[in-house]
Design a protein that fits this description.
heterodimer; A: alpha+beta; 5-stranded antiparallel sheet; 3-stranded antiparallel sheet; 36% strand; B: 83 residues; mainly alpha; Non-ribosomal Peptide Synthetase Peptidyl Carrier Protein, Chain A; 5 helices
């Protein structure tokens, strides 16, 4: 499974206060807190770790089909500036983060291998349309005939009639941005 | 504290973070913080910290894990207030 998470950095500045008492302690491991506090840009470090945790969580919950809120249990380490590893109990998630001035975008996957992930960033309101367009490009099925359904935990799946098209799919919205990531059912 | 009072207090706590006014207006015990009220997952911790402040309780990690709905929040607050 794969998961994604986008953070609108402008909105994150006003919507959350990472310096609030308890904010770091409840969500980040001691090691992560240390790294945040010694970072040159603690704000960016907070949201980098957060998006790694969230993307890994979204990958994991598609598999276990259960929701919960335990960000501290998703332990982050960085391999380099963009790549990271998130460990949750005996599970490992490999993350890739793209950081711009405006947003931070992370995709998490369960394998270290290269797999075909289709992903794009757009406007939040049109992200489903963009995803369907991409599916059309890849499968040849008309966009109008592709239907979004949600699993009972709220994870999106895209179908053509009875045929499931997406093997794993994750959609993220925040502020001015929307992003999708999916893998195809017949691949991998 | 009566359950109705708890719900009123909880409603005031979540208000700044909700993104679906309609779901907020029709809030019941069954309301889900993320799926219904569209609270950003990054703001869930704020809800939890605000609950701790408002009721003067400590929400441990095991309880926090379940705090995704009005019902779960009420149960946790009631349990912490009684111990």
């Amino acid at each position: 499974m794969i998961g994604n998470d986008i953070v609108d950095l402008q909105l994150a500045k006003t919507q959350s206060n990472w310096q609030r008492k308890g904010f770091l302690e409840k969500q980040f491991t001691e090691e992560e807190q240390k790294m945040i506090l010694i970072s040159k840009n603690p704000f960016a470090q907070v949201w980098l770790f957060w998006s790694m945790k969230e993307a890994a969580y979204k990958s994991f919950t598609q598999e276990i089909k259960k929701r919960f809120f335990a960000p501290q249990k998703f332990k982050c380490t960085l391999i380099n500036e963009n790549e990271g590893l998130v460990v949750f109990e005996d599970k490992k998630f490999y993350t890739n983060t793209f950081l711009s001035v405006f947003y931070l975008y992370t995709i998490a996957k369960e394998t270290q291998e290269q797999i075909a992930i289709f992903s794009a960033i757009g406007a939040p309101k049109t992200i489903d349309i963009a995803l369907k367009k991409k599916l059309t490009e890849e499968t040849g099925i008309l966009s109008e005939e592709i239907e979004k359904r949600k699993t009972f935990i709220g994870a999106p799946l895209f179908y053509h009639q009875k045929q499931l098209l997406t093997q794993s799919c994750s959609i993220s919205h925040h502020g001015n941005y929307g992003a999708f990531a999916f893998t195809l059912e017949n691949e991998s | 504290m009566k359950k109705e009072e708890l719900i009123i207090k909880l409603k005031a706590i979540v208000k700044p973070y909700i993104q679906d006014e309609e779901a907020f207006k029709n809030l019941t015990e069954e309301t889900d913080f993320i799926n219904d009220l569209k609270i950003n997952s990054a703001n869930l911790v704020d809800v939890i910290l605000d609950v701790e402040d408002e009721f003067d309780i400590e929400i441990d990690n095991d309880s926090m894990e379940k705090m995704l709905s009005v019902k779960a929040a009420i149960e946790i607050i009631e349990q912490k207030l009684s111990t």
